[in-house]
Specification:
This protein has two helices and four strands, in the order E-E-H-E-H-E. The chain is an alpha+beta fold. The chain has one domain.
């Protein structure tokens, strides 16, 4: 089974002690005018997802204010 959530990058923090390291915070996205957001808000009304990324291209791929799907699947 896969669980899908819709989250927005709400913070990106760089660190002087590690120039390649970026902490990214994602929070649920909700726009009343978007039916998909209404469905996601019903299933995941609140939450936070934090990542510390030490890969500059991966960190750059997550843009502040942009929305992403997070798919969660069991690891074998």
């Amino acid at each position: 089974m896969t669980v899908r959530a819709k989250f927005m990058v709400s913070e990106k923090t760089s660190f002087a002690w590690s120039p390649d390291s970026v902490r990214v915070k994602l929070t649920p996205q909700y726009d009343q005018s978007i039916p998909e957001d209404q469905r996601f808000a019903k299933a995941t009304p609140s939450g936070e997802f934090w990542m510390q990324i030490d890969n500059p291209p991966a960190a750059a791929a997550l843009e502040l204010g942009k929305t992403y799907y997070i798919d969660i699947t069991p690891a074998e």
